[in-house]
Design brief:
With 341 residues, this protein is mostly helical. 71% of the residues lie in helices and 3% in strands. It has a single domain, classed as ABC transporter involved in vitamin B12 uptake, BtuC, CATH 1.10.3470. It has a two-stranded antiparallel ribbon. It starts with 6 loop residues before the first helix and ends with a helix. 44% of the residues are buried.
């Protein structure tokens, strides 16, 4: 076996169910990015109510953070809600108890989730595979029950109320009490996070992550400390999840304890797989489908999760790469048809 291949050569090797590095680059082309940005700008005028649009962009960021871990690094976590919930709680406590500004509270949520990701990642990365996944779930459940029992701090089952505040940015007052203004503020933060994630994943560091996902042993033979790179990936993933949780607090002006529940982690796994893990905009597609189905079906059936589960199973069976793979499959089909002609 030749173990002297470069990182670029390793990431170029196709792996069933995952896009190659070159495909990911095509999916984050300027035109694709502009299309998704345009949809984000117009989304409040497309969906029935603006709160739904805000939820969509926040959970797109949350799913992106998970996709960094699963799709680009190859690490499955069942406890990703911990970082989302920690960011939400820290942001809420900063605004409710410390009376900080919006940006300071956002920074508090980011820092707390980053620190939690570093600690949990360091401990969980001592194991591999399914053991890693269940360790993350164990830590997430531990954090959930601490938050649930510590009702004097987090509000417990009743949640934590957070005051709505305005934002003074460079002398300009931004009224976040207005739903439309709040949506576009959150959209700006989400877009910045997507740009940063794109730069990170398309950097040499990102290529090492993709190389580890394809073949960790070969990557280690090239001299890279794969455990360190995994820890950095966990930290970045937790950071972006914390930003999403903080934005969710700003959106709701409330911190529900369900933010930390295992079911939140399960939903984000489903969203990522629906959209397509390893595709940069896969989380956006998955979020749109999941929330769209939830809103559509829940109006008619109380057990809407059953129908979403059936659709999820069908997509996993017949389109394991996720919905984001459809354009590539169409191009491949058209190219094959052209060659036959």
């Amino acid at each position: 076996m030749d173990n002297k291949k470069s990182v670029t050569e390793i990431t170029a090797e196709p792996r069933p169910g995952l896009p190659t590095a070159s495909l990911r680059m095509r999916l984050v082309s300027p035109w694709t990015s502009l299309i998704f940005l345009g949809i984000g700008i117009l989304l409040p005028y497309i969906v029935p109510y603006i709160s739904l649009a805000t939820e969509c962009i926040i959970f797109s960021l949350f799913a992106l953070s998970f996709n960094i871990l699963l799709g680009f690094t190859g690490l499955l976590s069942f406890g990703h809600a911990a970082f989302f919930g920690i960011g939400a709680c820290a942001c809420g406590l900063a605004m409710a108890d410390l009376d900080t500004g919006v940006l300071s509270a956002l920074g508090m949520g980011l820092i707390c989730s980053l620190l939690a990701a570093i600690v949990i990642g360091f401990l969980c990365l001592k194991s591999h595979g399914i053991s890693f996944a269940f360790l993350t779930l164990a830590f997430a459940e531990l954090i959930y029950f601490i938050a649930y029992q510590w009702s004097s701090l987090t509000g417990g089952e009743d949640g934590l109320g957070v005051p709505r505040k305005t934002l003074d940015l460079f002398g300009m007052v931004i009224n976040l009490k207005n739903p439309s203004v709040r949506y576009y503020f959150i959209l700006c933060v989400v877009v910045i996070c997507f740009i940063l994630a794109n730069r990170i994943l398309n950097s040499p560091f990102g290529r090492v992550l993709a190389s580890m996902r394809e073949n960790e042993e070969r990557t280690s033979f090239l001299g890279f400390n794969t455990r360190t790179y995994k820890l950095i990936s966990c930290s970045l993933s937790g950071l972006f999840a914390g930003v999403a949780g903080s934005l969710y607090t700003i959106h709701l002006a409330f911190v529900p304890i369900e933010n930390l529940h295992w079911s939140m982690s399960g939903e984000i796994v489903i969203i990522t797989l629906l959209g397509g893990m390893g595709y940069f905009f896969g989380p956006v597609v998955g979020t749109a489908l999941f929330i769209g189905l939830r809103e559509l079906i829940s109006g008619f059936f109380e057990r809407w999760q059953l129908f979403v589960g059936i659709i999820f199973v069908l997509i996993v069976i017949f389109l394991p790469e996720g919905l984001s793979a459809i354009p590539e499959k169409i191009r491949g089909f058209m190219s094959g048809a052209g060659h036959r002609d």
